[in-house]
Amino acid sequence: MTTEYDLSPEDFADTAKAVVNACAEAGTTADRIALLADAGLTGILAGDSCGGMGLPVDFAVPVLHAAGAGMLAAPLLETMLLARAFSGTQDDLATAIAIGHTKVTIAWNGELDGAAGTVDRAPLAEDCDAVLVFRRDGSAILVTLGAGAEVMAEDTLDLERPEARVVITAAEGPELSAETVTELQRIAQILRSALILGAAEDSLERACEYAQDRRQFGKTLVSYQAIQHHLARQCLAVETIRNSIARSLSPHCEMPVDAARATFIGATGLGAKTAETAIQIFGGMGYTWDVPLHRHLRFVRTLAAQGKAAELLDSVAQQLLSGDNIKKELQRAS
Amino acid sequence: MTQTAAVASERPSLETAGDTARAWLDANLPQGLREDILQEREPTFAELSEWESKLHKAGIIGATWPTQYGGGDLGLRAHLDISREIGRTPMPESVNSIGKELAGPIILAVGNERQKAEYLPAILEMRNIWCQGFSEPNAGSDLAGLRTKAEKTDDGWVINGQKIWTSGASKSSHCLLLARTGSVEDRHRGLVLFAVDTSLPGVDIREIKSIDGARHFCEVFFNDVVVPEADMLGSPDQGWAAATRVLSIERATNRMHRAWRFENQLQHLVSACAENPATRRLVEHDYARPLAEVAVNIELLKGHVETLVGSLIDGNEIGPRGSLPKMFWSEAHQDFSKLALDIVSRFPPDLSDPLRAVKRRMEDIYIKARAETIYAGTTEIQLGIIAKRILKLNWER
After folding, report:
1. A180-316: what CATH class?
2. Interatomic CA distance for residues A313 and B291, integer angstroms
């Protein structure tokens, strides 16, 4: 695919994969953010006056796909989103985020109603300088961590990006409007799906490789049709996520907001199923700590919770049963 | 002005193809053909043919075919736009989809000029109805095992054999026939395609009653049927390549409207239930999330269809990837049909006409959906294609 940018999203895939591999050897979250920033990946979506590339969202998809496949232990999604969101209104801050000087995350659960409160599901907050906190009126505020915003470790399913709780007593900092937050959430649905796509595809590749090597009863596992069909179903799941992401970002998509929401809801179920099936195909080995499939599964389930997949499904139901779909359809037609 | 030119002048432009189609469909779909209202009788074949002929005159069917053969010369994007509107309109399925979506594209791909000029306008104008003679009693999913024999003689090709599950054959004027020139052991080699006039001596068509009560599909016997050399499509060695092309088209783009028809069925169910306090309560309390999951699946299916169209526009071959939307749609739609049947089976007595209409439609969809994971390659065949040709799994290591 060629674009007006003389680049295609696929051009970033190899670089992203190499940097994510390098990150696996880095010691700290700060080191990993530095590697990602040096390669320009944290600023892909940030404005070009903010140390970024000002590229459309589809350019971030292969980068986050690589991050999901490579189990990247860094808040890359949150960094990309905030560098983009603050571009144009707070350029110095957007620049600091894009070049990795200010390490940021987002507390995906909970809202502040006033200047104090508790929020959680903030990946890697313990290693970050600031956290974006949503407010009940739809806007958000970037709170500096430390005095007035204490990070508390939580039990966490995700091993790569452990979540934390943040107790805020005095919320002060740069703000995002409700409109910007709505857009941020919509883009997050698509980019989370890209992370899930990477995790799912890596799970599938590992399962295919194992099934072609492992022999039982004198034959490779993949010689058995039951195993072939398991793998084929997971291939369909992976391609369904991939195609739905592409549709959500296509200029020809009729209802991109609905498409992004459905992409994310679908990706959470399909991605988890792919990791679960991979564990099943590995058999007893799949249940061991050292085989990393459980890491993908934990990651996908955590992303589902951060993106509120269950609540989004309820919103689809509400829209469907209220007749809003039919009304939207009539509006589209008129 | 020729008939073709008159038709072409009515065609929508690329920018407005979908909107124009929608406006025409809204204004012209007869009440007797609507699937979302209670009908006292099934439409006749003649009524369905007449409707499809009108669709062609309105430029809604044949949009991508060249104007010289009665088409609209529009691109795939416009075809998708029109297909969306066809899907959103609760109208009957085509009775000549084999002609329009399989035979026609194959003739365009491998037919000679005479064949194109003779067959293509006749398909669009509903003068010729086509069926597909591929499956055989011992070559259903395993198409390369087909045995129908084509022997070359001085008078043309002599065909002997039997086809089965031939949808619409008893109403068809022509059969897209796949036969072999050599032995069964040749598998994919020596397969040849013909356009067979079903009125030829030796063609014997027998209807088979299917589980929905219809007599749509048939078995077709060919006993020393002499087919003129001129009715062979492509060269003998092109048969398998043409057949696989047919199948990849069938799996990927055939009935491109089905995601939007699926959505229309879901919305019909929900909106009909909303009219009655008891059924409204039923879906809100017991089925809200399962129905939302159906809505999500429909969006995911649109992702398959629209991405595939984009890929075709970019010049890529469909190949085995045609199995992806076919599999996703058939299983998601079957799941919906079970859910819908569950809901309508809990309707209270003394139903209004709108609820009776939706109950009848959902029961019909449930029964018909049994076929969806069987035709155009069973689910098991699709899984095999994905395993072998997309994942490229190697079980010979």
Report:
1. mainly alpha
2. 10
SS3 B287: coil
CB atoms within 10 A of CB A132: 26
Residues with Cβ within 8 Å of residue B277, at least 6 apart in sequence: none
Residues B385, A220 contacting (CB under 8 angstroms): no
The architecture that CATH gives domain A1-102 is Orthogonal Bundle (1.10)
Q: Across the strands, what pairs with B150?
A: B159
- Residue A171 tokens read as 């919320």
The tens digit of pLDDT for each residue in A71-119 reads 999 999 999 999 999 999 999 999 999 999 999 999 999 999 988 999 9
DSSP A107: E
Considering only CA atoms, which of B125, B126, B131, B61 is closest in space to residue B91? B61
Distance CA B72, CA A13 (A): 40
Q: What is the DSSP letter of B387?
A: I
Name chain B contacts of A327, Cβ cutoff 8 Å. none
Rounded to a whole number of angstroms, the CA Rg of chain A reads 20
Q: How confident is the model at residue B94 (pLDDT cuts 50, 70, 90)?
A: very high
Q: B204-236: string of b/e by CB count within 10 Å (b at 16+)? A: ebeeeebeeeeebbbbbbbeebebeeebbbbeb
Burial of residue A16 (number of CB atoms within 10 Å: 0-12, 13-18, 19+): buried
Of B88, B300, B310, Cβ closest to residue A250: B310
CA distance B154 to chain A (A): 47
The complex's ipTM works out to: 0.95
CB contact under 8 A, B292 and A253: no
Rg of chain B over CA atoms, in angstroms?
A: 22
- Looking at CA atoms only, how far is residue B183 from chain A in angstroms? 29
For residue range A9-24, list pLDDT tens digits in order: 888 999 999 999 999 9
Q: Just give the CATH number of A104-176.
A: 2.40.110.10
What's the pLDDT tens digit per position in A188-219?
Answer: 999 999 999 999 999 999 999 999 999 999 99
For the ranges A321-330, B292-301, B373-382, the maximum mean pLDDT occurs at: B292-301
Q: State how far the Cα of B165 lies from the Cα of B207, in Å rounded to an integer.
A: 9
Which domains does chain B carry?
3-93 (no CATH), 130-237 (2.40.110.10), 255-390 (1.20.140.10)
Contact assignment for B291 to A321 by CB distance below 8 Å: yes
The rounded distance, in Å, linking the Cα atoms of A273 and A331 is 36
Name the strand (E) or helix (H) holding B150.
strand B149-153
CA-to-CA distance for B298 and B294, rounded, in angstroms?
6
Look at B303 and A246 and tell me if their CB atoms are within 8 Å: yes
